[in-house]
Amino acid sequence: MYPPSHFLFAFLIAEIFVKFGMLSHEIAILVALIAVLIDIDHFIYYAAKHRDLSLRNAWNAAVVKHEKGERTFVHHFWGFLIVTLFLIGMWFVNLTTFFVIGISYYSHMLLDDGFFVGKTVDIKEEGFVIKYPLYEFIFDVVIVAGIVGLFLF
Q: Which residues are within 8 A (CB) of 34 and not within 5 positions of it... i.e. 6 or more apart?
């Protein structure tokens, strides 16, 4: 999924924790930002492989070409296992860090590994190609409604 979906979904989950007094609104924003930044591994892979620091080229390689290997270990079983083991240890050290990393990472992985199919709208803007699926637009609208609902009630 695209960065806005990762941000909104992680933010919604973190705001639920805010409602229960476990996190602050500022921490909820941090959770959402980290959920987006998890995808920096795509850029690092592209930059290292192609010796090209163009964010646009890295983006298009991931979105259009789905270049083999662009999902690093963080997005696979061993990364999942390492993060989980780290979080088990973090549970005993710092509960806030546990929640920040846990919500960010697991919400990101849930959206990335979910099985979604459907028609896409292809958008080209300033050289960036976006293949925006209808289901993702609907998902984002539902998440925004959930966030608004949390703030209203």
A: 10, 100, 101, 104, 105
Residue 142 and residue 32: Cα distance in Å, rounded?
Answer: 17
Q: Is the pTM of this model over 0.85?
A: yes
Nearest alpha-carbon partner for 28 in 111, 141, 94, 104: 104
- Per-residue burial over 43-70, b = 16 or more CB atoms within 10 Å of its CB, e = otherwise: bebbeeeeeeeeeebbbbbbbeeebeeb
Q: Specify the number of domains making up the chain.
A: 1
Range of the domain at 144: 3-152
pLDDT digits (tens, 9 = 90+) for 99-151: 999 999 999 999 987 656 667 788 888 888 888 888 888 899 999 999 999 99
Q: What single-letter amino acid sits at 122?
A: D
